[in-house]
Amino acid sequence: MVVISKCRGTPYMRRNLYIKIFSLSISLAVSQNDTTWIAKGGTLIDEGKYEKAATYFSEVINKNGNDKRPYYYRGLTFYLSKKTDQAIRDLNTALKIDSTFIRPILVLAAINYKYLNNDKKAIELFDKALMIDSLYTHSSFKRADIYFKRADYFEKIKNSRGAENDYLNTIKYGCDDLNKIAYLNLGLLYFDKKEYHKALDCANNAIKIDAFYFDAYSLRYDTYLQLDEFDKATADKKHLKSLKNEKIMYYCGE
């Protein structure tokens, strides 16, 4: 997902958050449970081969129809390929098997606010996920995941206060891979509200997590310009150029 910010035309690349979280979930599942079928299906999704991924997860379901996970992953695949009816069916099936399974609840929330324009239902689902986490899972990773996705929802309905609070909660509970994106998105939020010092703090925090985070340097560069700190902006511009060249060399295999 490419978002063009209001920052003097600078483009920021916000990775599709559902694919981001899905990738994190894949790595965790493989390292903890050695579920190779999840890794294989996840690779197909990462490559955008949604039809093949759905077929593969169907084969897994045929072998074990009582496992909630292949229904969730096939539902996620249908969601990413915008087959909402099929996605809803599979996600609800996963929840019938385990009503405390948080992941399908979050994808159902996304379907409701992205495709069905049902904001009320989306909020109900986010609240349900938070309640399940507090009662059963007590997982900081899952709680951060919920807040991050709800923040994305709040941004889409122009609720900047809700988005701000949820990004801050994401950072409170999240891991570095998620927090650097939360800091970037929060910084963009502050930039749009002309709260430039807060935007600068967010950019700096993202850079502390990832010293090669191109988008965070882009935000900081634009923020320095707004604050008339031209020497620092010039330094960041040079650094951005070097980072861009490094990316080009990496993609070219040099």
Features:
254 residues, 13 helices, disordered C terminus, disordered N terminus, 2 strands, mainly alpha
Brief summary of the model shown:
The protein has 254 residues and is an all-alpha fold.
Could you characterize the architecture of this molecule?
By secondary structure, this protein is mainly alpha-helical. Helix content is 78%, strand content 2%. It contains 13 helices and 2 strands; from the N terminus they run ββααααααααααααα. Strands 1-2 form a two-stranded antiparallel sheet. Strand 1 and strand 2 form a beta hairpin. Helix 3 packs antiparallel against helix 4. The protein is globular and about 60 Å long. It starts with a strand and ends with a helix. The N terminus and C terminus are likely disordered.
Per-chain topology:
Blueprint lengths: L1 E3 L6 E3 L3 H17 L2 H11 L3 H14 L4 H13 L3 H14 L4 H13 L4 H19 L2 H17 L3 H14 L2 H17 L3 H14 L4 H13 L3 H23 L2
Antiparallel strand pairs: 1-2
Helix pairs in contact: 1-2, 2-3, 3-4, 4-5, 4-6, 5-6, 6-7, 6-8, 7-8, 8-9, 9-10, 10-11, 10-12, 11-12, 12-13
Largest sheet: 2 strands, antiparallel
Number of separate strands: 2
Which strand order do you get reading across the main beta sheet? 1-2
Based on helices, strands and strand pairing, what is the structural class? mainly alpha
Q: What level of helicity do the residues show?
A: over 70%
Strand content: under 5%
Described by the principal axes of the CA atoms, the overall outline is globular
Count of helix runs:
13
Radius of gyration: 20 Å
